Amino acid sequence: MHPMLNTAVKAARRAGNLIHRAADKIDHLTVTKKSHSDYVSEVDRAAEQTIIETLLEAYPSHAILAEESGTQGDSDFVWIIDPLDGTTNFLHGVQQYAVSIALMHHGVLTQAAIYDPTKNDLFTATRGRGAFLNDRRIRVSKRIQLADALIGTGFPYTNFDHEEAYLAIFREFMKKSSGLRRPGAASLDLAWTATGRFDGFFETGLKPWDIAAGALLITEAGGMVSDLNGGDSFLKSGHICAGSPLIHEQMLKIIQPHLTDALKA
Ligand code: IPD
Ligand code: CA
Ligand code: CA
Ligand code: CA
């Protein structure tokens, strides 16, 4: 394993174990609301601290972009961190959440680790070296037709600007795919697309920490990741469509006619 990925895995497991231990006391946690349906608990913050400490201990000069504490440092190497992706699930005792850590070097994603502590699923990728679930190589789905495809998504619940377009796209996938799922942790939706559990995934308004690690997993698993218009601005806009090459192409055909100007980036 690449030494930088090794460090990311160490950080993700530490944070995951901290989250797992805290899952028994969700009713006693301090929780605040950042915006509509965006909660943050003391566990999110503690997990983030653990991750940053672990990464900076190994690489003190690297920069950080983390959901709860923002940016620190200035470097060609930037760690992009979601300490607890799926906070709403976590706070309700729904076992679908993960730690997501990616490394970007000169603007290119090079390492990814996503750890699901409830299932002990560790998803990893290094640019050019494939994607793995635990020790097993993973690849995107082989399904050919959208009609047979299971599509993951997430609702635009923190930003209702895209509601109408989203619902129109949702309605069409409801009719034209074999099913839609909204598990509630974008990093795992992407990891599950990398393993072929989902044939494709789309969502609007995500943040770099929701997407970065999952995007590298998918490309390393042979899949495609783009913005909703087929371009490459998904990390910046947070509007994302991903899947196996065949399903991704069919998804874009459904999505594109519904896009507003704001969703085209
Ligand atoms: C959220 C989850 C969710 C997505 C939201 C994200 P958080 O992340 O990834 O699936 O739909 O947009 O904000 O806040 O639980 O880390
Ligand atoms: Ca959040
Ligand atoms: Ca998140
Ligand atoms: Ca989070």
UniProtKB/TrEMBL annotation:
Swiss-Prot/TrEMBL catalytic activity: a myo-inositol phosphate + H2O = myo-inositol + phosphate
Superkingdom per UniProt: Bacteria
First-tier enzyme category under EC: hydrolase
Requisite cofactors: Mg(2+)
Positions contributing to Mg(2+) binding: E67, D82, L84, D85, D210
Enzyme Commission code(s) on record: 3.1.3.25
GO biological process: inositol metabolic process; phosphatidylinositol phosphate biosynthetic process; signal transduction
Name of the protein: Inositol-1-monophosphatase
One Pfam family from the record: Inositol_P
Entry GO MF terms: inositol monophosphate 1-phosphatase activity; metal ion binding
Family note: Belongs to the inositol monophosphatase superfamily.
